[in-house]
Amino acid sequence: MSDRLANQIAAGEVVQRPASVAKELLENALDAGASSVEVLLKDAGSTLVQVVDDGCGMSPEDAERCFERHATSKVRSVDDLERIRTLGFRGEALASIAAVAQVTLKTKRVEGGEQVEKRPCAIPNGTSVAVRNLFYNVPARRNFLKTPATELKHLTQTVQSLALANPEVAFRLEHDEHEHYDLPAAPDEDWPAATRARILGLFGDEHDDELVGVEDSSSDLTVRGFVGAPSFHRKTRGEQFLFVNGRHVTDRYLSHAVKKAYGELVPDGAFPFFALFLTMDPRRVDVNVHPQKEEVKFDDQSGIYAFLRSAVREALGRVHVSPQLDEEGGDSEGADQDGSSTESAGSSSGRDGASHRSAPTSFQP
Known about the structure:
By secondary structure, this protein is of the alpha+beta class. It has helices spanning about 5-15, 20-30, 60-65, 80, 95-100, 140-145, 150-165, 190-205, 250-260, 300-315; strands at about 35-40, 50-55, 100-110, 125-130, 170-175, 180-185, 210-215, 220-230, 235, 240-245, 245-250, 270, 275-280, 285, 295-300. A hairpin with a 3-residue loop joins strand 7 (about 210-215) and strand 8. Helix 1 (about 5-15) crosses helix 5 (about 95-100) and helix 9 (about 250-260) runs parallel beside helix 10 (about 300-315).
């Protein structure tokens, strides 16, 4: 099998649509310590996906190697993989993208304030990656792209998720020369205020009175963020965001835990808004499950389900809503454990103690 064919096969797992490209490029920008990123799109990403950042840039050696498969500067050993904290680590993204698109990379790096190399360069410090004509050499893949409106929706959700997780970074999104977002960076000293401002910047100031703060912790697990009041719900899961150690993940089982916390406050078929951030020992979660890195496995998924449901339930009980709650037992019945995270490999004894806590079932003004 030729290298070209192998790269195109690998690209089928990593690059499924323009949003996949944007996600990989944005993760690289954030891993590079960017304080500002700009996403430029044309034709819903099929003609152009470009990400410009002001991060640390790349060395000439890394710039040459970055399009080789399994070339990464983020993981050196198996031990590194078990405690991974960067968003990217597989070393496949740029090689896979370059196999199915026309890619231009420009980078400039400053090292210690000293000039390392002198050459003409018309870009500021950082990196610009422009991906043009996605799937130009794989017509069948290009034909399977959805409508421009659908592809743009996926691109927007990708930017939303990474912008939510990084309120200290300025984000700008432009599509066909029309600005969609221009979000200023917020100081990270006041995380709740910064995250709240980022949510309102993305979804509108009209939701200011509909955000409920969530914060809880156990011995080895912490959650913080915001859920929507019962009035802040949608017909799809498009505005539900769950993060694990700063990484956006898709997990219907844990999303069910949030929905269960609302009891009957949210009707069937409706999905409450949430942006929740779980923090735990990286050794408790396996992020190396799928090439797109959005599926993870936990060592005690049942315990995390109970902890998350209890934390949201308590937050709702502290404000003007009072969930009609089921008994503690059996709350996870009906949850989709075959979603993006498979069933727990650990026990549900609730080593974090979450499964033994009950939230207020009434509110006294």
